[in-house]
């Protein structure tokens, strides 16, 4: 599991991590308007929590 700040929310970084099977959490800001809108519109209340500790 990798966490990163907005500096690392870049296509190349995400591609690198996904190609290696990594799971990551990245901050999405408004300077990526398409991604920002997609994330903002997610149906959060419909998404179930798979694990809680």
Layout of helices and strands, plus pairs?
Blueprint: E1 2-4, H1 11-19, E2 24-26, H2 33-40
Parallel strand pairs: 1-2
Number of strands: 2
Number of separate domains: 1
Please count the helical segments: 2
Question: What is the CA-based Rg, rounded?
Answer: 13 Å
Q: Globular, elongated, flat, extended or rod-shaped: what is the shape?
A: globular
Largest sheet: 2 strands, parallel
Q: Structural class of the helices, strands and pairings?
A: alpha+beta
Name the poorly predicted regions.
none
Order of helices and strands: EHEH
Order of strands across the main sheet: 1-2
Protein name: Transposase IS4-like domain-containing protein
Organism: Streptomyces cathayae
How would you sum up this structure, described in words?
- This protein is of the alpha+beta class and about 55 residues long.
- It has one domain.
- About 30% of the residues lie in helices and about 10% in strands.
- The protein contains 2 helices and 2 strands.
- The chain has helices spanning about 10-20, 35-40; strands at about 1-5, 25.
- The protein has a two-stranded parallel ribbon.
- Strand 1 (about 1-5), helix 1 (about 10-20) and strand 2 form a beta-alpha-beta unit.
- The protein is globular and about 30 Å long.
- The protein starts with a strand and ends in a 13-residue tail after the last helix.
- The relative contact order is 0.18.
- The model has no long low-confidence stretch (mean pLDDT about 85).
